[in-house]
Amino acid sequence: MARAFTLAEARELMPAVLARANELIEVRASLVEVQAALAGGEPSPLGGLPEAKAYQARLSELVGWFSDEGLELKGIAPLLLDFPSELDGEPVLLCWLEGERELDWYHKLPHGFAGRRRIS
User: Fold this and answer.
1) Could you report the per-residue pLDDT of 56-77, keeping only the tens digit for each?
2) Is residue 70 a contact partner of residue 3, using CB atoms and an 8 Å limit?
3) Which of 39, 57, 60, 74 places its Cα 20 to 30 Å from the Cα of 49?
4) 106: number of Cβ within 10 Å
5) Regarding beta strands 72-76 and 79-87, do their DSSP bridges make them parallel or antiparallel, or are they unpaired?
6) Burial of 47 from C-beta contacts in 10 A (0-12 / 13-18 / 19+)
7) Is 71 strand, coil or helix?
8) Residue 14: which residues within 8 A CB-CB, separation 6 or more?
């Protein structure tokens, strides 16, 4: 793990994470819509190939922001982020899933998402 967050540091970053996540979700949806229209030969009110390229570029920037902050991006649809951390002297990943408003979950490194537990 490169950077390790304390629980307080991770929770302090959450407003910025939520803002970027909301934008990423909007850009992701727009990109999918434009790509589907392009693939089907249908016009989209969101634009065409130039707009698709712009959505791809913005999506890449947003994904890069999470990495730059030290977060691990585990999935983009749904958006799944891990904050490297330590609880009770053991390395863990604080885990946030799209749709959650707060950072309330963690899992041990080898257990992955299926091993999520609520932070006590």
Assistant:
1) 999 999 999 999 999 999 999 9
2) yes
3) 74
4) 23
5) antiparallel
6) middle
7) coil
8) 96, 102, 103
